[in-house]
Amino acid sequence: MKFFDEVIIYIKAGKGGDGCISFYRAKFLPKGGPDGGNGGKGGNIYIIANHNINNLKNFHYKNNYVAGNGLDGQNRKRTGKNGKNLIIQVPLGTKIIDIEKNIVLIHLKNENQMFLIAKGGKNGLGNINFKSSINRTPYKKTIGDLGEIKKIKLELILKINIGILGLPNSGKSTFIKNISSAKTKIGNYIFTTTKPILGIIKNKLDYSNISILDVPGIIKNSFSGKGLGLDFIKHFKHCNLIFFVIDISIINIKDNISNTLDIIYNEIIKYDKALLLKEQWIIFNKIDLLHNSNYLISSIKKVLTKYHYIKKFYLVSSKNNIGIKKLYMDISNYLYNLKNIKY
Known about the structure:
By secondary structure, this protein is α/β, with parallel strands linked by helices. Helix content is 17%, strand content 24%.
């Protein structure tokens, strides 16, 4: 699915209803007292976390949200109806940022956690509230206040299981499409993936969901904004596994692996070196393009001796589904065992 992790929305709480000026009139009470009622309160806007939502896509297409206005007061001391509250549902892990004040209002980390983001306007008062011993017929009311208006940024920090990194055109899009339910754009050109792509697979052991996130390809100086930058890997902070996808079809195996890993590691270190402490596996992709792969394993092992963070490596062809089943089972076993470790 196309993944949106940041959006800007505009919210407007409801206006409070105006108070009413009215006087009671009856056959035998031609000069009855004031009976103008109060207005209704303006509707509030709340934001609530929902685990069934996994990105901010819907806000990309609709970014204006307005709560209901309170109705005006009426005669016979009738209070206007309160404006309807509006509840906006967002994914777990969403940060809410007030853009004008440049502050984080809240980070919604718990299911059904609710936050009042915009308060409705105070209701106006009818003239029944202004009667006194010296003013029996007050021609006075108050107008309802406007509701709060805000421009806010929603920023999603996902708790994913697997993050995928690689250079552009390494086959990451084909890989995530093959192993998961994601529908990705595939092409033989640089920066095929321009937005994060979220895929979901089922764990073979307990049928729980395993989330896999593919982010735009890393190039040298991505940290400084070159290419598509590194902002997307903020989602790897809570992941269990990081996959490095490398195009193995390039002839010079040693230089290809070393250069690729050096570029990725150097950029990660600039962004957050704590990510290097994550479990890391290498996916050597496009093995179908090699005519003779017998020498690969020994060559790869020699190169990887200097990369102590790498725990496992796999030879696959995402296009031809080679090696994917074995990898799938290893993913299921690793995450199942990790979840069931008792300390």
